[in-house]
Amino acid sequence: MTGRFVRAAAAAVFLAAAAAGMGGVLWGHGDDLLAMFSGPRATALLVGALLVKTAGQLAGWASWRAGLTGLGSPLPARPSARIYFLALLGKYIPGPVWGVLAYVRLGGAVGIAAGRMVTAYLLNTVVVLLTAAVVGLLCVQGLGAGGLWLLAATPLALALLWRPRLLLHLVAGAARLLRREPPGGEFTDRGVRGALGLETLCWAVSGLHLWLIAVLLGAPAGRALPICVGAFALATVAGALTLVVPDGAGTRELVLLGALSAVLPWAQAGAAALASRVCCTLAELLGAGGVLLLTGDQKTHRTLLKAAP
C-alpha cells in the first residue's frame, strides 16, 4: 500500500511540474497559437497528421507481427491486429506490467502460450528501443552534444542485421530488467530483420505527424523534417521508460520541447508537443476502435475484451 502511494505521489508531482513548465512556456501566447490552429490550411494539415500517425501504427503492428512469426507463432492479420491495437491501450495505465499482461491474456484467448507472448513482447521492446535510437540520430542537431550517445545504436543495429540471433542476448537483458525469466527458443533471421525494418518504417511515418504540426506553426519544412522524425522516436521511448505516469505524460512533451526549439520558438515548440499528444491519443483510440469494428465477429470481440486487463 505504501509503495503504491509513493508511486502515485511521484507521478502527481512529476505531472504537476511538467504541466507548470509547459504552462510557463505557453503563457501569453494563447491568442497567437489559436490563430495558427484555425483556418482551412490548419484543418488540412491536422487531418493529415492524424492520418499519417494512424498509418505509422500499422507499420508498428506489422513489426510486432513479424517478430511473433519469427518466433514460430504466426497469426493471421485479423486476430493479430486485434491483439496489438487492444494491448496498445494498456500503456495508458501507469506501471511496467500492463503491456505484458495485456499481450499474455489476449494471446491466450487465441491459443498462444504465455511464454511465447512474453518473448514476443520483449523482442518488440528491444526492436522499438534500438530503432528509436537509430532514427533519433536525425534530431541530434536539436539535442546538441547530449544526443551523440545515439551513435552507439548504429553499429548495434548493423550487427543485428548481420547476425539477427544476437538479439537473444538483448532480449534476455530486457527480461532481467523486467524481473522475468530470460526467454528460451530461437528467432529466425528473416523475422528479426523484418521486425527491425518495419519498426524503422513505423518511426519514419509516425514522425511525419509532428512535422506537419511544426510546419503549421512556422517551422522551415526542410530543416524541420529530420528533427521532427527523430525527436518523435526518442520522445516516445523516453515517455515509455517513465513508468510512473501513463504513456509517459510530461516526459515526451519535455523531450519534444527541447528538440523542436531548434526550429521553432519555445512557445510554438510547446504547442507542437501538446498537439502531438492529442494527435497520437486520437490515432490510437481510432485505430483500436477501427480494428474492432472492421475485423472479427462479436463473439471474438467479447472474448478479446474479456481477456484485456
Describe the structure.
The chain is mainly alpha-helical. It is 75% helix and 0% strand. It has 14 helices and no strands. The chain has helices spanning 2-26, 30-36, 40-70, 77-88, 98-108, 114-136, 140-143, 153-162, 167-177, 189-216, 221-241, 251-260, 266-294, 298-307. The model is unreliable at 24-29 (pLDDT under 50).
Summarize the structure.
This protein is mainly α and 309 residues long.
The stretches of 5 or more residues where confidence is low (pLDDT under 50) are 24-29
- Kindly provide the radius of gyration, computed on alpha-carbon positions and rounded to a whole number of angstroms: 19 Å
Distance N terminus to C terminus?
A: 20 Å
Portion of residues in beta strands equals under 5%
Using brief descriptors, characterize the structure shown.
309 residues; mainly alpha; globular
Strand and helix map with partners:
Layout: H1 2-26, H2 30-36, H3 40-70, H4 77-88, H5 98-108, H6 114-136, H7 140-143, H8 153-162, H9 167-177, H10 189-216, H11 221-241, H12 251-260, H13 266-294, H14 298-307
Helix pairs in contact: 3-6, 3-10, 3-13, 4-5, 4-13, 5-6, 6-8, 6-9, 6-10, 6-11, 10-11, 10-13, 11-12, 12-13
